[in-house]
Structure formats: structure tokens, C-alpha cells
Amino acid sequence: PKVKNWDDLYLYHYQGTWYHSRCINGVISFQNNFQAEDSDVILATFPKSGTTWLKALTFAIVHRSRYPLEKSPLLTSSPHDLVPFLEFDLYMKSPFPSFEHIPTPRILSTHMPCGSLPKSILNSNCRVVYMCRNPMDQFISHWTFYHGLGDQTSDPLPLEEAFEMICQGVQSYGPIWTQILDYWNASKAQPGKILFLKYEDLMKGDIVSYVKQIAEFLGCPFSESEETQGVVEEISKLCSFDNMKNLEVNKSGKQPGGAKNDTFFRKGIVGDWKNYLTPAMSERLEKLMEEKLHGSGLTFKTS
Ligand code: A3P
Predict the structure, then answer these.
(1) 13 assigned to active site
(2) What ipTM describes this predicted complex?
(3) Cys-Cys with 257: which of 90, 163, 236, 269 at CB 3.0–4.6 Å?
(4) Which residues contact 248 (CB under 8 A, 6 or more apart)?
(5) 176 pLDDT above the threshold of 60
């Protein structure tokens, strides 16, 4: 089955998930061709849930010996150029890319649900870091992103219509609740394999403790001397929204697929949905999420 997406292109239903026409071929190619290595780090996210931030943090953490922070490639390259997507080929390359240019350990990213990842990811010793975001901010971030892309054949759907679709679970990589639960359950079953993070926790909590948690999970904990020298704080600062947004490459650069780098840095706050959704809409989505996540123990901070 297929339906029209917010941007007038199509979404295809495949293995229980809605995929954008721009990535459906990449999804199948990824599933058929990707060979994970034990040292790989896979960053999995629902779109607009902090992918760019997680890419920057993980790159800075994992490659801190190779690239001292004052010379970090993050200062001159978009996190999306340093950590490519596996199935959504921003480079529009074909056949499946080799990722030869990616330093080891390879950091790669995907928006696909855990259950649809290639077997080699699940069967190898590579690790997966998953980040999700409260569905209300995710929706607004996604909807505004479509507006900002500026390469559409027609205007994106009005907010109310797009909202109706997401409540039916119809959105790129949706339903959101299915994906979040998928990774949540998998992380409970395999805590050493999958680290489950929430955007709001990193935004509202102590970012330094999350940087340490990611490093420990990936098997590259900070040494005492690194901690004394303030490396953890430096990484947190380097990857902060204000710092990244103001880097020249993120202000003026473009992705090979056409998206402008600045569209990945909008407001970077928790609770912007209040400026867009009516009380009736937010109540509906909150109730829907409560129903869908019932019994899982999973909740979200929305403000
Ligand atoms: P908003 O649109 O709410 O501002 P993704 O990277 O998955 O596409 O998600 C984009 C969202 O993450 C955007 O949210 C963007 O502003 C926010 N973001 C990007 N970089 C960030 C950073 N370094 N820290 C916090 N949020 C960031």
C-alpha cells in the first residue's frame, strides 16, 4: 500500500513501517547488502529526534584520540557528512555505498526500526545507540523541516492534516510508537547491545553524565586524566546546539541531496509544540501515546 505524504511524494508500507519514496529502495538495499563489523556503532533515531546531535556527540567521543577537539572535523563538516545514513542515501549513490571513507570504528546511522535492521547488525557485536523524542516536539520539528526544505513540488500539507495522519500512524518511519517500543523492548532484552536515550533527558539533564554514559557503553570510557582535563565538558560544549548552529558549515553548507545544513538546527528546545498545537490536539496525541505505550513503563517529558 502507498499513501501521499505531507510533501506530495509517496509513503510505502513495508514490514509494518511507512517509508518515504526517497528511501524505500535504500531500505531494501541496506537490508540486503550491509555487513556490520563488530566495531561498528549504529546510531538509530526516529527522524527529527536529535539525530544530528547524537551524530556529533558520538563522533566526538569515539574519535577523540584520532582528532583532538580543537581540530575536530565537526568544526568544518556537517555531522551528516561525517556519519552517513545507511538507508536514506543523501548522496543518491547506487549501488549500496561501501563506506570506505569512514574511519574505524565506523559510526553509521539509520531511522529504521530495530526489527527491520539487517541481521548482521543484530548478530554481530556492534552496538546500537537509539535516541527518541517526545512525539509532539518530534511532529512539529518534522513538519517545520518539510517547510524549510524548499525543494518540494508543492507546499507541505497544512498542520491539521499532517497531524491527523500521524495520529493514524502514517508518517515517514511511523508509527512512531511502534518504533520507540521496538527499541525500548530490545534495549531491555539486550542492555549491552542497545542503549536507549531520550532527547529530553539530554536537554534537561546533565549532558556531561550522558556523554560519559555513551562513552562507557561504546567501550571507550574517559580516563581520569581526560576527566581532570575537562574533555567531557569540552565535547558537550562542542556539540551544543548554539555552538553547532553557529558554525559556518552548518549555517551555509548543503547536503549532497539538496537539504540545507541549517534546516537541521531550528530551535533545539523541549516544548515548542505549545506554539503550534491546540490543547485538543496535544491532549489527543498524549492520550494516544499513553494507550500505545501502556504497560511499557516508558514516558516522555513534554515541557
Ligand atoms: P527542532 O526542530 O525542534 O529545533 P534531527 O537531527 O533528528 O533531524 O533532529 C532535529 C532536531 O534536533 C531539531 O529540533 C534541531 O533543532 C535539534 N538539534 C539539532 N542539533 C542539536 C543539538 N546540538 N542539540 C540539541 N538539539 C539539536
Answers:
(1) no
(2) 0.99
(3) 90
(4) none
(5) yes
